[in-house]
Amino acid sequence: LKQIQPFITINMLSRLSLSTRALSRVAAARTFVTVEKATAESALDLSGYKSIDYTINEDSTVFDAVSKFAAFNIGCLVTVDAGGSMTGMISERDYINKIALLGRTSKDTAIKEISTKSSNLITASLDESVEDCMTKMLSKDIRHLPLVGKNKEVVGMISIKDLVRTVVQEKEQTIKVLSDFALGKGGHYGSE
């Protein structure tokens, strides 16, 4: 749990149509109101990648990867070797930049020829904060982040869209907790 950040202002709360008395109660108790901190695991729970097989064998053709992109309406896959270990990632960008623009054919090119290798991958652990994940993605201009477990095995994947959904959900939860508190529901621990 974390304290509500100062960006939750009385002005923002006033948009919730709270009375002056309720607003002053929130202002007096802001340091006691808490919400759950969003993590990569929270984002994974909201991710479309959670319910699909987001891996593909690196020896498959790029055509197979593009077919999977289209079938699942996704833009990235984790590449794995015959043993199931992560070897890299392939994205729509890889297809556009390394196949389409160079005049190669997707049916004649193996994924491992164009994928980003695991040694160059940026990954995150399940317990990393959403903010840390966003920082990693923005600093490297990437839209997908493989999640790894304690033994560095791939356990999921999230997109920037998943992180945005998680932040929005966290902000909505914060507003609900503060609103409930201001209305006298559930004390300073949120609604019950």
UniProtKB/TrEMBL annotation:
It holds the Pfam family CBS. Keywords: CBS domain. Gene3D superfamilies: CBS-domain. Residues 114-173 form the CBS domain. The keyword Metal-binding does not apply. InterPro entries: CBS_dom, CBS_dom_sf, CBSX3_CBS_dom, Diverse_CBS-Domain. It comes from the Eukaryota. SMART domains: CBS. The keyword Membrane does not apply. This is CBS domain-containing protein.
